[in-house]
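User: quick one, fold this
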Amino acid sequence: MNKNVIMFFTIIFSLAGSYAPMLMGEADIFSIWAILGGFIGGIIGIWIGVLVCKRFI
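Assistant:
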């Protein structure tokens, strides 16, 4: 598997997960919700990155 593709998706989804609570007005960037969102987004990013690598690369 291509590690760069997996890392790309992990970073993008982690940033999106961290920023989502701010868009909803729930918390700032250093709150527990932003950290939890970044963690969950990172896990989803790894999963999608692996799927993309298996499908296209």
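User: anything notable?
Assistant: The chain has a mean pLDDT of 90.
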